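A note on notation is needed here, since sequence and fold are reported together in a single record. The reader may check this reading against the record printed directly beneath this paragraph.
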Amino acid sequence: MIDLSTATATDALDALARGAITSEALLTAQLERVERFNPVLSAVVAMDLDGALRDARAADEARRQGRLTGPLHGLPMTIKDIFATRGLVTTSGHAPLSDYRPEADAPAVAALKAAGAVVFGKTNLPEFGGDIQSYNDIHGLCRNPWNPERTAGGSSGGAGAALASGMTLLELGSDIGGSIRVPCHYNGVFGHKPTWNAVDRFGESPRPPVWAHALMDLAVAGPMGRSVADVRLGLDVLTAITTGGIPGARLPPASPRSYSARGLRVAIHVEDPAAPTSAACKAAVREVGARLAAAGAQVTEPGLPGPDLAEQNLLYRDLLNAAMSPGYAASHQEWKATDERRHRLRADYARFFQDHDVLLAPIAPTPAFPHVTEGSMGSRKLTVDGVEVSYLKHLVWAGLPTLPGLPATAVPVALSDESLPMGLQVIGPLWADQTTLAVAGLIETLNGGFRPPPGY
C-alpha cells in the first residue's frame, strides 16, 4: 500500500506497475479519503462509484494479461467540473445544468481515459469558472485543507484542495485568470498553464444541445498534481494526439540549459506598483532566486519587456472581458487593435527570452485569504500587509503570462508565518512548456517536494 498523505501520481503508477497495489485498492483508498475529508472541504462534487470500480477492475485484469492501455493505466483521478465527462454530471457550477450528463467526453478527458486513467469524480469550481474562489449554488463553498476558513482558490479550487488532501493524485484544470496557478499557490500543489492552444479545450463549459466550437481567447486546459513529474506526465498525455490543433505535433524538448542550475539565465520580477504583493510572497520568490544563484544560475531583475505591468494588465483585462463577458460591445476593428497590441507584446517577450531562459514571478498577492463571497468581484476588497486593495488585483500576476499566451508552471516553495502555502510561477517563451517544467523540477529539488497539510 502507498501513503496517500504524501504519495504522488508517479509514486502510485510505480506501485501499480510493481504489483504493490491494485487499481481497485488505490481507488478504494482514495474514496475513503473522500468520505473522511470531503464533508468539510466540498472539493469533490460528483462521483461515478460503480463506473469507477468497474474501470479499476478492468484495468487490473488488463494488467494481469499484460495489456496496458497507456502511461496512466489504472490511475484513479478527478476532473474539474467544467469539462464534459460522459455519463457523469457536468455542471460548470451553473444551477440549470445540475443534472446534465454529457453523452461524450471532452477531448482532454478522452485523452486521459485513453491513457488508462480511471475517472471517478468531478471537482468544485465557481460558476463557469468565473472567480478566484470556488463556490456555487449547487455544491456550495470549497474550503482549503490548510485552513478551512481560507479559500482554496479558483477556478480549479476543488482540484487544488482534492490534490492537497490526497483525495486525488492527478487533475485536469483550466486557466484564464490564474485558475490553475492560483489554487496551486493556495493549496501547495503543482500545475501547468500551457502555451495557449497547446491542449484541446473543446468540451469545456459544455451546454446542450450544441457545444461551442470556436476557440476561446486566453483560456487553456492543463494538468495539476503533487510533483513536477506528475504534471509533465499529464501534459504529455494531453498533447500526445495533437498539439496546437496539429495532429501528431508535439511540444518541443526543453532547452538544454534548463536541466541544470549552472548557467541557467533566470529573470525575477516581484516589485511592481501595479501588483501590490505581500512581503512574504515576494520573499519566497527571491529566496528561490538566491538558491538558484547559489547553485550556479545567473539571476537578475531586469524588469519586464514591453509596456509597464499596469498597461499590460489593462490590455489583459480588456481581452479577458471580451472573452468572458456576454455584454462586451467593442467593434471588430477595436478588438483587432487590442489584439495587435497583444501581438506586439508577444514579440517583446520573444526578444526578452533571447537573453533569459525563464521568468520567475509571484502567482497571487497573498497566501490564501479568508472567504469573501458577498457582493460582486469588482466591489470586493482584500488586504495585503494591512493595506486594503481591490479584489481584482489578484488578476495582475495571473495575467502576466496569460496575455501573451506563454506557458507557466506553478511550484509550491514556502509556508507563510500563518503556515499557509506560497508558490511561484516559472514563465517561459511560447511553446517552451518543457523548459518551464524542467526549471520547475530544479526548484522542486532545491525546496523539497510536496508536503501535505497538517492532519491530512
